[in-house]
Amino acid sequence: MCDMYNTRIPELLVAAIKNADAQEARALFDDADYCARKLLEGLISTGRLLSGMGDNLDPSMGELRSLGDSIAVTAELVAGFSEVVEAYNWRCRTGEIREGGQHA
Prior knowledge:
The protein is mainly α and about 100 residues long. The chain has one domain (about 10-95). Helix content is about 75%, strand content about 5%.
């Protein structure tokens, strides 16, 4: 797990999927995959909006800090959700669980 995270959420998500039974693991996989995609879409949209505003935007330092913190936490969540997806796929590849949420 990366040392650069501000929260323990990615670590806890990975621990949860590693210890989940097959059905719980599948549900967590589905949720993590969905959340990661939607958070990435939000980051992309935010970047495009900010880029389009260009010179017309004059944010305060507080607003910039807040935006930076928000982007960092969003990136942490995306990383955590991505690690959950990887952990689920690894459990399937090793035969610990079958794809679809059943024990092997």
